[in-house]
Amino acid sequence: MSDITLLIMAAGMGSRYGGLKQLDPVGPNNETIIDYSIYDAIQAGFNKAVFIIREEFKSEFENSITNKYRDKINVKFAFQKLDDLPGDFSHPAGREKPWGTGQAILAAEKMIDEPFAVINGDDFYGKESFQVVADYYKQSSNFSMVAFKLLNTLSDHGGVSRGVCEVKDNHLSNIIETHDIIREGNEIKSSGKFSLVGDEFVSMNMWGFTPKLFEYLNEGFSKFLSKHSNELKSEYLIPSVVNDLIKKEEEQVQVLKSNASWFGVTYKEDKPFVMSQILKLIENGSYPSLLF
To answer: 233 in a domain, yes or no?
Structure first.
């Protein structure tokens, strides 16, 4: 098949989690969630992996994660930096975090010339999710998004933020960023002004793009900074970029639906559940006990 890259966003420190959760083992042989994503991607036909990290963690990432599969997939690193800004823009005094997922993806611009999927480094998407993206780019050059059911993406240990999707004719028509979504008994509550029932499609930041995205990101980032460069916490987020492209009718985004198990480690208390689910997948033959 043609080349396809997996872009893993792993520059976040995991403030709610309390540490660099991307390096935290969850498998029986100290595998990380990223290891399972790479394994699934290789099985689906991906032939390059680009990790977006903080430069100071490169050696730790190599020793803990990527060295074990360098001979199985082409591995590259891109660094998201607070001061990596276009033109004469500079970050304000007191700002500590980089500028969000849009800036993170831009950090990999020079490394990608082919269709690519974007994922979070701390989410487990399941092998079917990687396969549907790989299969899609055998025959299409449009943007895409893998959708999951809201009910299957909640944490029992606190509120989560999700991009609730409106879908029309299998295309994304809108994403509503909804915060503090929490399950209380048989109810799902959020800080939003609309009710949720659990079967809504949500984005878990698993996207499919072509290199054309970088043109949009470069233009949009400069416009974003013109308005927000003096703010300490504003972020240039990929769902907002995609929403804007849809509303301007510049791009269509195909919604790819996956029945794979999704789970993530938002809070430390989520880890035992993730570990138990992975063991079940090993027991039913979905994964070998030792990945690499």
So the answer is: yes
